[in-house]
Amino acid sequence: MTTSAATSPLDQQGAALPAPAGPPLNGLATLALAYGVIAVAAGLLPAVREITGSLAVPAIALAATGLANARRLGGAGTKQAAAGLATGIAGLALSVAAHLPA
Fold first, then answer.
1. Residue 75 carries which DSSP code?
2. What burial letters (b/e) apply to 61-99, b meaning 16+ CB within 10 Å?
3. Coil, helix or strand for 19?
4. What are phi and psi of 14, to 5 degrees?
5. pLDDT string in tens for the chain (102-residue length)
6. Any idea what the Cα angle at residue 39 is, between residues 72 and 33, rounded to 5°?
7. What are 10's strand-pairing partners?
8. Residues 26-49: pLDDT tens digits?
9. For labelling alongside 37, which of 48, 51, 59, 74 has CA 20 to 30 A away?
10. DSSP states of 26-53 as a string?
């Protein structure tokens, strides 16, 4: 029996096999990146800072946890967590610079 692209593969008894699992996901890394991008926007735009407050510190904490999870998950989300850490640190620096006297 041949299988086509439209049908799922069958085992020897003719039952459908489950679909293979996708790569593991690292939600903390994704969240760190999102918070980091918002933190940079808040550092550059005072109107965004009024709405969001400072998300730089949570971005850094989530990135550190995301990096630890990436090691456990075989590298899934390493680049996102690293980008979240970089944008979190940049957002923190921009927020601190915005509050310094001129």
1. S
2. ebbbbbbebbeebeebbbebbbbbbbbbbbbbebbeeee
3. coil
4. 95, 5
5. 555 455 567 767 777 777 777 788 999 999 999 999 999 999 898 888 888 888 999 999 999 999 999 999 999 999 999 999 999 999 999 988 888 887
6. 25
7. 16
8. 999 999 999 999 999 998 988 888
9. 74
10. -HHHHHHHHHHHHHHHHHH-HHHHHHH-
Distance of CA 54 to the CA centre of its chain: 18
**Cα 63 to Cα 7, 12, 42, 50, distances in angstroms:** 40, 46, 18, 23
How many helices (H) and strands (E) the chain has is answered by: 4, 0
Q: Which tokens in the block code for residue 89?
A: 């640190």
Instruction: Report CA dihedral (14, 16, 18, 20) to the nearest 10 degrees.
Output: 80
Number of residues in the chain: 102
Give burial (CB, 10 Å; 0-12/13-18/19+) of 34: middle
